[in-house]
TrEMBL record:
Residues 1-64 form the PAS domain. This is Unannotated protein. Pfam families: EAL, GGDEF, PAS_3. Residues 299-554 form the EAL domain. It comes from freshwater metagenome.
Length: 571
């Protein structure tokens, strides 16, 4: 089949030059007959296509009267690449004009049309994301390339809560704007996952308000929870629609690649998990595990048990100390909640805090943590003027959105008999992204009460310096991701030095988290970091275990890294 003007040419095998070319070559590639006959044929073929061209050329030459066809890119005289269809025919057995006969047709327009049609068939027209067909292809490729027994691929399906309401109330155009912005954030999340976790990521739009995130990374155990958390963080910033900010939440279904699973099965499992999540309310996450009914029952039991966990005295605190490298003494501790479940054993916060947040139990749970952390600080004499120390607790956006938070905090400290200066709250940058004036007022009230405020995971968020200027921050905690690369990554080391210098210039306490090795500790000390914490110094432990260690200098403790503890403990 011909496409526009065709060109006939003969390639001499002895010289590698075209011994004959028809005049129509000028219309196809811009060269005259004389010009093109002085240039080796190999110079015209795109480097990426040269191997395939040479292979098919060899195949044709192996057979008298052999014939084959290939599509390659050829250089136009203008320098542009044109897609041409080459039909090769072996004429070496003929007496005259011996060589390879070429029929050349410019099929650039056809190729572009086919590529565009393929793109349309495999991408979503509104957002430009992959569609269901391309997603299934990517899943299939990932499954074929993995040892499925140890596959590290996770699929998340997300359905935007109340999307129909946005469409009905604000109109379809605004609904489309929401979908495009949601897609933009998913792309940004994909870039973050590629950068921070060296992950392979595909983002897709499947139906009106249903999206998917396919992620492959190195850690099967933590990958699903980490990606879900990244997704939650992505949605903390309100969506601005028609000049008004709106909170947007999603229900998420998570499926992990299993032995002998197919792309369709993995997509089905994620859908089943997502629909179960939707059935339990807005802003829910559900994990599929081949026993979705049993898992669903267990999830419901967790939520139900959590309601009674406080009354049953099943919650406990573990404490992770931070040390002053100048004195070697304990400078502060961070209180971390655990759940001593009567049947499932000790559970880290990752197992129940999300349920507490989605079921509006986080405020009550957070208050329990504050009450008991304050009591422990008194028992440990943290407000002793001769050796002042501080107790830190983590607080969520929902807690800070409560107008009663600051007063309840003050009452807890009064009830425990603790000086406010011995107590502090930790907030992440994601909390400060929530557009709620009450959060700013709450933080101001906490600061005025005499309690400290720490910005946790510093440097991993969006506008760290802005928050230092806007809020009354007393301390910053260098994220453990920077400390982890301290001795191997010059960029991480530079960030740690810069953050420590910034903190000192602003008269802020700076705590480097995540110290796991003696090398990291030595590097931090050499950089002038005076406050450090991490598993290499002391993992989170119960009050009874930490009490005899309160006055044991760091130098007297041997740094031990228990890899089992590191891999199983939950902050």
């Amino acid at each position: 089949m011909q496409y526009g003007a065709g060109v006939t040419a003969i390639l001499s095998q002895d010289s590698g030059f075209l011994s004959y070319v028809s005049p129509s070559i000028h219309h196809v590639l811009g060269w005259t007959q004389d010009q093109i006959s002085e240039i080796p044929m190999s110079r015209f073929i795109h480097p990426d296509d040269s191997t395939a061209f040479e292979q098919i050329q060899s195949q044709v030459l192996e057979r008298p009267n052999g014939r084959a066809q290939i599509e390659v890119r050829c250089r136009h005289k203008s320098g542009a690449w044109r897609v041409v269809e080459l039909t090769l025919e072996n004429l070496i057995s003929e007496d005259a004009d011996s060589g390879l006969l070429f029929y050349i047709y410019d099929v650039t327009d056809r190729r572009q049309a086919v590529d565009e049609l393929t793109r349309q068939q495999r991408t979503d027209s509104l957002t430009g994301l992959a569609n269901r067909y391309l997603l299934l292809d990517r899943i299939s490729i990932g499954l074929e390339g993995e040892d499925q027994a140890t596959s590290n691929m996770v699929l998340l399906k997300c359905d935007i809560d109340r999307f129909g309401m946005f469409n009905d109330a604000l109109g379809q155009d605004v609904g489309d704007d929401l979908l495009r912005e949601f897609a933009r954030r998913l792309r940004a999340l994909a870039r973050r996952l590629r950068s921070l976790r060296n992950a392979e990521v595909t983002v897709a739009r499947l139906t009106s308000d249903e999206f998917a995130l396919l992620v492959s990374s190195s850690d099967r155990e933590t990958l699903p929870a980490e990606v879900v958390e990244e997704l939650r963080q992505m949605l903390l910033e309100p969506f601005r629609l028609q000049g008004t900010e709106h909170a947007v939440t999603v229900c998420v279904g998570v499926a992990v690649a299993e032995m002998d699973s197919t792309a369709e099965e993995m997509a089905r499992d994620a859908s089943a998990a997502m629909h179960f999540a939707k059935s339990t309310g807005a802003n829910q996450v559900s994990y599929f595990n081949r026993r979705v009914r049993e898992a669903a029952i267990e999830r419901l039991e967790t939520q139900s048990d959590l309601v009674r966990a406080i009354d049953r005295d099943e919650l406990v605190l573990h404490f992770q100390p931070a040390y002053d490298t100048r004195t070697g003494l304990l400078e502060s501790t961070e209180a971390l909640v655990r759940w001593q479940h009567p049947e499932r054993g000790l559970l880290g916060p990752g197992y129940f805090v999300p349920d507490a947040e989605s079921s509006n139990r986080i405020v009550e749970l957070g208050q329990w943590v504050i009450d008991h952390a304050a009591q422990t600080a008194v028992a440990w004499n943290f407000d002793d003027p001769s050796m002042p120390r501080k107790m830190w607790v983590n607080v969520s956006a929902l807690q800070l959105q409560s107008a009663a938070f600051a007063e309840n905090l003050a009452e807890s400290l009064r009830s425990a008999g603790l000086t406010p200066s011995a107590f502090g709250i930790e907030v992440t940058e994601s909390v400060l992204l929530v557009s709620d004036p009450q959060i700013s007022k709450t933080l101001d009230d906490v600061h005025e009460s005499g309690c400290s405020i720490a910005l946790d995971d510093f440097g991993t968020g969006y506008s760290s310096l802005t928050y230092l200027q806007r809020y009354n921050v007393d301390a910053i905690k260098i994220d453990q991701s920077f400390v982890a690369g301290l001795t191997s990554d010059a960029d991480d080391a530079s960030i740690v030095v810069a953050v420590n210098s910034l903190g000192r210039s602003l008269n802020l306490s700076v705590i480097a988290e995540g110290v796991e090795t003696a090398g990291q500790l030595d590097a931090l000390i050499s950089m002038g970091c005076t406050l450090v914490s991490g598993f290499g110094l002391c993992r989170p432990i119960p009050e009874a275990e930490l009490t005899p260690l309160l006055n044991v200098p760091l130098e007297a403790r041997r740094i031990e890294i228990d890899l089992t503890d590191q891999s199983t403990a939950n902050r």
